[in-house]
Automatic annotation (TrEMBL):
Chief location: cytoplasm
Protein's name in the database: Threonine--tRNA ligase
MF GO annotations: ATP binding; metal ion binding; threonine-tRNA ligase activity; tRNA binding
Family listed: Belongs to the class-II aminoacyl-tRNA synthetase family.
InterPro entries with a match to the protein in the record: aa-tRNA-synt_IIb (IPR002314), aa-tRNA-synth_II (IPR006195), aa-tRNA-synth_II/BPL/LPL (IPR045864), Anticodon-bd (IPR004154), Anticodon-bd_dom_sf (IPR036621), Beta-grasp_dom_sf (IPR012675), TGS (IPR004095), TGS-like (IPR012676)
Residues the entry annotates as binding Zn(2+): 334, 385, 511
Alphabetical list of SMART domains matching this protein: tRNA_SAD
Assembly notes: Homodimer.
Cofactor(s), by name: Zn(2+)
Amino acid sequence: MPTIIFFDKKKKIYNNPISIKELIKDYNKKIYHICIAAFINNNIKDLNHLIIEDSTVKFITIYDPESIFIIRNSCLQLLTYAIKKLWIDSKIAEGNITKNGFFCDIELKKFLTKSDIITIENKMKKILKNGYDIKRKKIQVKKAIELFTVIKESYKVKILKNISKKDKKINLYYHESYFDIALSPQVPNIQFCNHFKIQKISGAYWKGNKQNKMLQRISVTAWESNKKLQQFLQKIIFLKKRDHRKINKRLNLYHIQKESPGMVFWHNNGFIIYKELKTFIRLKLKKYFYEEVHTPIIINQSMWEKSGHLDYYKESMFTTSSENRKYCLKPMNCPAHVQIFNRKLVSYKNLPIRLSEFGCCHRNESSGSLHGLLRIRSFTQDDAHIFCSIDQIQSEINNCIKMMFDVYNIFKFKKINVNFSTRPKNRIGNDLIWDQAENDLKSVLNSNNINYHHNIGEGAFYGPKIEFTLQDSLDRLWQCGTIQLDFYLPQRLNANYIDKNNKKKHPVIIHRAILGSIERFIGILLEEYAGKLPTWLSPVQVVLLTVHDKNSKYAYSLEKKLIQLNVRTKCDTRNENISTKIKEHIVCYTPYIIIIGDKEEYSSTITVRTRLGKNIKNICFNNFINALIKEITTYSNTGLEV
Ligand SMILES: [Zn+2]
């Protein structure tokens, strides 16, 4: 006689065990068609689940956030069902749910192409028309192994054999006669899986391990309603337009070629952006009292052994050798900065020492994960290491945070998210130091009125950290800045200073980066601004276009003035139609196009066309220059104010 307490606190006693399906009908028939599962004592169960004991119940409808996982999980089996119907010899390996849908890895002799996407989608839609109920059977692992062995699903057999308790029971879900192991409960009827689209087919190693066989991965987006699916597909189109690799083609910023995967060949236009960002950061380094250093890219392996990086980072490090000595390309700059610190005897009076570097680092990311500027193997970190005493942590962190916001605020991201990660279970250093460091970090965050997310236990084993994630206009998150305390590296690399009592002490190191990698940050900016970079970062800031040949002399005189003021200017005096010339330069997102015809020349004025399509007519050239210089020097991204 189970007593059921519903989510609205209503209570009812049933004489016999009751399935969730029956329970919904009894509770409120009207919601039956939108219910797909339920929380029974806080565990998600499908509608076939039989309630035999006293339980609290909350129904899950397609409008609840939990529904999407259940729908995607069911749709995943719809996909594999369709695959098996199309290619009987295929073997289903494993799938998983992703942020926008799911993927499934399969083994198939046939190499799937784009045209197969439509074939698979059509098959899924055809199956959907059967409108069947999804059934579940609970069986022992050993029984399941037998079943999958009979149908030659070798990957499923491997997965099941990894479950140590063979008498444990697992759920098999049935789509008509086709069955599979499921990640979670499934929907009651296949009709709930109506809104999907296959996005791509790619290669993937079984279990992500290069030693294993290469399989074919089918990635699908799936949603609870057609509206949600269409919204997502629209967003994809929007994102594609903003893809920095696409914008790059217009702006001619850089290229990457197969002989140097994940490494950037900067063209003049791109290198201008790179240099401007460096100059901007250098100004801030000066303001916040940093020294700038530069250290080698190739350093002997022994140093990476001493620093401990070789143990943790070996897979990601490029190595080389010369005269029987092994070297590594630095994946980070920290040990090199400690070498500079260690070169002289440091007194407590010299602390803090703030060493910054635009450090060229290399990390051996897998070739499959490389993505334009956003994921590369060779990058420039705007890195710094602050060597300080424990009682200086608070003021130094305060300095770092102020500098972070000083930099980020220029770019006007929608939001800056801050995460504060504290001591993990396994750590070095005594608890007193951790207490003080964490309290210092916390009080700095509070005194700066920063809302932060507390990640308890997520800090590194060598110290707590603060991470800064930029939220762009499309609500994508980009983790860029970090402030990481380190009690460990000074010990490993024997960094010391002499304290007030003439005793040797290890300093604390604060690792901090603001933009992260300059290359990646440029990729982020290109996408955030959709190519229309603020004028101070634009490779070409002003283009002068002549209407007639005879206006060339006047145009060149204006160009000369602009160049003298360090405004990046181009002059287009070609004998082309003016509207053709305008169109060509609009494509490159040039902030200001100046049109010079007879009228302008006689009145010593100019007509300015902004890249947003605004025309400013008959403006005095000097007024334009003053407004432009103000816009550039204040790093404005709101455009010209005249
Ligand atoms: Zn570091």
